[in-house]
């Protein structure tokens, strides 16, 4: 009898484990803090929809006039803060920062001045 060639394929459980590990975002695997912000290339309609959706799910009172994150009073800033509040409240999973591909997970704290981007 001829010797049998060893299979070079991964076993099904090993393949499943490899795919699972590859799906974990690198930042989470390294224990880094992460935030969600709007992509600068996002259009106004998308940012408005993101802002409205996020604020229907979380408390966005920090964006009101007189609060720490009202300024700069522009759509991308307000949308980023609202999207991050949503992302943080949902467990910082990459899919909670997708917003139809109009958001980015970042590892640099986007806080500025007195406006502190929440990190839970």
From TrEMBL:
The segment(s) forming the X8 domain are 34-117
Matching InterPro entries: X8, X8_dom_prot
Q: What are the record's GO terms for cellular component?
A: plasmodesma
Report which superkingdom the organism of origin falls in.
Eukaryota
Q: Which Pfam families match?
A: X8
User: Keywords assigned by UniProt?
Assistant: Signal
Range of residues in the leader sequence: 1-29
**The keyword Signal is assigned to this record:** yes
* Keyword Cell membrane (UniProt): no
Q: What is this protein called?
A: X8 domain-containing protein
- State the species of origin: Musa acuminata subsp. malaccensis (Wild banana)
Task: Tell me the classification of the organism that encodes this protein.
Answer: Eukaryota, Viridiplantae, Streptophyta, Embryophyta, Tracheophyta
């Amino acid at each position: 009898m001829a010797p049998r060639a060893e299979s070079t394929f991964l076993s099904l459980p090993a393949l499943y484990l490899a795919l699972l590990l590859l799906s974990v975002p690198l930042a989470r695997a390294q224990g880094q803090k992460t935030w969600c912000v709007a992509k600068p290339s996002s259009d106004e309609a998308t940012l408005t929809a993101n802002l409205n959706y996020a604020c229907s799910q979380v408390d966005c009172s920090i964006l009101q006039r007189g609060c720490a994150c009202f300024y700069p009073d522009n759509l991308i800033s307000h949308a980023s803060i609202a999207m991050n509040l949503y992302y943080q409240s949902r467990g910082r999973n990459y899919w909670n920062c997708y917003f139809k591909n109009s958001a980015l997970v970042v590892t640099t704290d986007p806080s500025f001045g007195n406006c502190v981007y929440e990190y839970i």
